[in-house]
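Feature request disguised as a bug: please show the residue count (175) next to UBC core domain-containing protein in the output. Example input:
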Amino acid sequence: MSTNAAEAIGMSNSKASSTPAAASGQSVNKRLQSELMSLMMSSDSGISAFPDGDNIFQWTGTINGGDGTVYEGYTFKLTLKFPTSYPYEAPQVTFATPCFHPNVDQYGNICLDILKEKWSAAYNVRTVLLSIQSLLGDPNLDSPLNGHAASIWNSVAEYKKALLKHRASHPSKGS
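Example output, currently without the count:
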């Protein structure tokens, strides 16, 4: 077997144990770089995401509340952390900006099926951000993380009042 062939299949003496992991990391790195370019080129309004500095495995995302929803005019920052097994395992996505919502808890955790049991490698950063943006205006009231928000969701006036109160209690973090 030639040296090049051995290296290609990860059997060279110096790379025998690290090549598969490195190849996996390179594959995820390429996927995330491709998704970043795709997101930058998309015409989707109200969503964006970029790696935090040189760390391709952690991004900061931004979503705007949808037009015609109680979140219209609001902007939320998200933290996206990608596992080394991405895209076969979902990224961990949390709200960095405090968010009063039926499917978001006080720590920013999001109850969204595509981030859990319904995850598929076909999803990407764009579909995740668009799904969260959609969730803002159309929550899953059958699976709330914030029971109070879920209980008043259908009373627009009461919900807006609670939303403004929540926003006022978190002025330094903005939303």
